[in-house]
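# step 3/5: fold
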Amino acid sequence: MRRLWRGSRSQQWVVAAAFLIAGFASIRAIVATLGFPGSLAVFPVLLSFYQLGIAPAARLIGLYRYHSPMLKATIRTRRLYEVHGGTSFDYLMQLRWRDRGCSASRRIMIHYLEGLLDIARLVAAGEIAESVQVSGTSYFFSEQSARRIGFRIRPAGIRLRLNLLLNALDITVLYSFAKGRLAIPNLLRAREAVISGWELVARRAVIEAVIRKLRQESTARETSAAHQALCA
């Protein structure tokens, strides 16, 4: 599946069609279980399968605009540019089970930052307005990290909070994978990080410096692991 998705456009559509079938089957299952005892317990699981099912097609038709393998923009207007982390499908395509924990966490963070650099590039090129507000709710970034990059932190709106709560199962699974253990993010205290387009452009050097540091840490860890394997 991973090889097919990285193949030609037609091969990608084969993958997307297979996932769409599973996604629509999840919708039917959701409707069928409404009103039955225990349906509320099943709903998050079916919704998770639905999200996984539509993700490849949403990417191919441009509903999701990807700026890196793990950062996508959903709502895109001249005034607002809302970004989100990768879907469960992106985790399946980009990461392996052995990557869970620190390795996955660093790679995901690097991809997030690379996505922000790509948005900054488009702002600088005039393809995205300088006045646009780039925003996102992330349980992954600490407030300190977000502020270091230049984001302002404010309470998340009702729509964003509802979106997080509806996708709580997916978020918990992906968050736990990145942590390398079962970890439940506090979605009720989610915050929104916001930065203007021109401010993002001005912070490119800072973002690039953070990426370099993360890559150095990743290389050092891989070198150490390889050395330990040779000495074992």
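# step 4/5: annotate
The longest strand covers residues 71-76.
# step 5/5: archive (pending)
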